[in-house]
Amino acid sequence: MSEEHRGIWVFAEVIDGAIAGVSLELLGAGRELADKLDVPLAGVLLGENITHLSEQLIPYGADEVYIIDDPVLKDYRTEPFLAGMGKLARMYVPEIILYGATPNGKDIASAIATDLKTGLTADCTMLGVDIENRLLEASRPAFGGNIMATILCKKHRPQMATVRPKVMKALQPDPARKGMVLKEKLEMKEAEIRTKVLEIIKGPGKSVDLEGADVIVCGGKGMGDEQAFQLIHQLADTIGASVGGTRDAVEARWISHDHQVGQTGETVTPKIYFAIGVSGAIQHTVGMKNSELIIAINKDPDAPIFDVATYGIVGDARETVPVMIKAFEELLRENEVISHA
Amino acid sequence: MHIVVCVKQVPDTKVIKINPKTNTLDRRGVPSIINPYDAHAVQEAVHLKRQHGGKVSVLSMGPPQATAVIKKSIEIGADEGYLISDRAFAGADTLATSYALTKALEKISKTSPIDMVFCGKHAIDGDTGQVGPGIAKRLDIPPITNISAITKVTKDYVELQRKLQDGYAHIRSTLPCLITIEKEINEIEYAPFPNMLKAVNYQPVVWSIDHLEDVDRKQLGLKGSPTVVGKMFAPPKQEGGHRLEGTPEEQVVQLVEVLKEKQYLFHFNKG
Amino acid sequence: MPEKFDVIVVGAGPAGTSCAYQCAKNGLKVLQIERGEYPGAKNVMGGVLYKQQLEEIIPEFWKEAPIERPIVEQRMWLLDEESAMTLGFKGRAWANEASYNNFTILRAKFDQWFARKAQELGVTLINETVVEECLVENGKVIGVRTDRPEGEVLADVVVLADGVNSLLAKQLGFHQDIEPAQVALTVMEVLKLPAETINERFNIEDGQGCTIEMFGDSTKGHLGTAFLYTNKESLNIGVGATLSSIVKEKIKPYELLEYVKNHPIVKPLIQGAEEAEYLAHLIPEGGYHAIPKLVGDGVIVAGDAAQLVNGIHREGSNMAMKSGSYAAEAILLAKQKGRFTEEVLAIYREKVYESFIGQDLKKYKDATETLENHPQYLKEYIPMMNRAARAFFTVDGTSKREKQKGIFNMFMERGKIRTVQDMYRAWKVMK
């Protein structure tokens, strides 16, 4: 570690020609850290034909943007991205680098941590800073999400963390903000790279759209058995919602893995989230607590899900859900009548 | 084709309990299991062996009890197992872990060159997914993470389906390479009885630090780990919401009223 | 070609492991197959381990086995809705190592330990595997087929210790379907409580345990019993009733357990305890009449599978272990003779019937049926005894002689002849 490591970087991930939401969120979180440590905040942008995107980063809080614009960076691959990030980090020695905990963000962060022989904390949900010691306090759910742990990297720089999407808040963009753009080159030939991206297939691979859903009905262990879990599907069918499941429900094979909400599944932010028979272990709530309206049904009045729920019903889901289905069916029928009238 | 699968023994996080007073783990009665993603990785390697021939080895780092996950891998169909076990490895974070495993892989490859290294996507006790790419970097082979299908295997390259946030990338990589495995890649098969018999009495090759070559001890275990746990704390409590009262019918009536009032009903679509 | 062992033992409970242990100790190649995730995973019952049978197999086992507490006191409660006639025995001698009688155990821990001891002697234990059928060739059992791919495995002799309602024994035609009256469904919870609290509430010290058997209102008068055992830092509380009464009287077993837990006499003992586990298990109660055919060519049936449980005294694990030992003895003899025929193995049946197992089961052969057919014992006499005791011990100015007379009349209200008949019948089945 040396005194010269200064500044906070955010790896700006590009998805479909635009900056990923999580990267903008990280600029918001990074801004706060940078102000506390009195250092500049930088976005790091790698890709092909992406230089113009620097204009998106500065309004969201970046003071500086480092850019490598090169055809070998067209689609994400570890090798060229590692070469690019590694080169920049060695040249400009930041003290903190933040990445979105996305497949690509986690991939590049892991490779760079090994390359730079430094510490990396995965899947953080809280970031803080010890100003005196200039330490990043990266906190994350640990041990299956039952408890929070703060991880420190005391003697190595840069300090690095991947951060879960939709946990941090992006700033309101300020078009008047000014920033500096620095471009670097990557000396790497396509022929040197051992992996090729043959094709990118959008969407269809994933049959379940939880992230885009406005309403999600999620069932947990409290449903008791696979048969009772069908009530979750019935309710979802009634109101046109997507179905989610907790890790327990997935492990019990009541529902497939791609429906999983939580730390090891999807992070979702629907308008309405029904948590039914879900106890509310933090491993689950990190994935859904930012939903607009949360309705929880659980037998146990002390279940932690009620701490995040907007409305709580203490009761047996097997009794309540059928009543709910009936009520919503009637409601929707009424509305149909009204809209046709 | 020689595939080495890195497997980890983890506490079954489904049954882990936290002592709410001390914020410490209550490990009593918590069973140790093979990391589920690693089990899928072993299964996938066994599938490939069936189709293309070769050998499946598994490698684990941990205390002597970690032999159990190697036995589990033998049940699934692995041919041989290696355990690196030494106090010097204890307390390793992902950086130090990838260093130790890399040293063991180098030793294995001396007698039997490795075509592919498989890792689980992440371990359920750490959820980091950092060790696999770390090993790849150290071995200087390409890492391809989050693999949900292996679509083609030749002696020079593989074609893989890599899971992205909103879709898939179809990737070709030269061999050797390292891939990390998603659960959806396969279903764990019910192990054949002869495998069960073989596993019961199977003893892996156990290496201590002295068995490994060119090891820089400073990069191992606690000493070689840049990260430390600062503190453990209970998850922040959020302000709880409103409790509905009464019979199920009464509660649902209240809920419908609230949804109407707050104009949330238009989010419903008739299914 | 399937692998071949000397012996295959199906099941890793007390009977199976006892047999496997002794076969391996005498140099036989033994394969043990357990359906649960580990031995004891599927087991609740017992909770009480008797010393003698295991000591014959592993001397001074209590020094290393995961026992909870040596039992120094056995209580019996005859409950009505709000009172209890209590009797029992507490002996300091039972707290001494030299004269231990029995212990409370947690089966999940104990069965694993016992199986591990057998593995140390060379037994090959395969978990999470279901034996689907015995392989039979020319009327002789030559191995088993498991539910796994390539699941056949061979042996000279197969020991069926696969628990109550042994499907394997049934497939071989050794018994018919088990009658609902011949089997009890027991549900049990493990309740966590600090050791000091247990010591205080049960008036015992560290290293001392207590068992309470409850009759009468604990099962709302249905045929069955409830029990409460002290472990080191937990209690086992459970209730069992015959399957026939559960069906006939539409009892929900977990409701019955809730009822017991909330019984005014029981509740103070378990107050504040944390529920750690919930388990359910079938226990053979058919006794002597229900014992199936015990041996065939290349096959032996042991433990619960052979219905070797004394329902009246709640003894099962000791009979299971002993039958496992006898099975091992028979197998070793057969090995010596080089013939694993029914004729050679028949020595097992003789030993079972001649030992305390056969004798005790014979003694109580009609007890369960009698209680099943005559519900008045549990439904009427126990409440009556409670009323009698209350009347007798309540000081209200009535003379003791008057009270005795009143109590006598109370019992005779049912009709002299009926009462005398009931008493005679009870004496006859218990004698």
Helicity range of chain C: 25-40%
Order of strands in the sheet with most strands of chain A = 7-11-6-1-4-5-12
Mean pLDDT of chain A: 90
Q: Considering DSSP H and I runs of 4 or more, what fraction of the residues of chain A is helical? A: 25-40%
Tell how many strands the DSSP assignment of chain A holds.
18
Low-confidence stretches of chain A: none
Evaluate the radius of gyration of chain A.
Answer: 23 Å
The helix/strand class of chain A is: alpha/beta
For the record, the CATH architecture of the largest domain in chain A stands as 3-Layer(aba) Sandwich
CATH topology heading of the largest domain in chain C? FAD/NAD(P)-binding domain
Order of helices and strands of chain A: EEEHEHEHEHEEEEEEEEHEHEHEHEH
* Percentage of residues in DSSP E strands of chain C: 25-35%
The CATH homologous superfamily name of the largest domain in chain A equals: HUPs
What is the terminal-to-terminal distance of chain A? 73 Å
Q: How many individual β-strands of chain C?
A: 17
GO molecular function (chain C): oxidoreductase activity
Cofactor (chain C): FAD
Keywords (chain C): FAD, Flavoprotein, Oxidoreductase
Family (chain C): Belongs to the ETF-QO/FixC family.
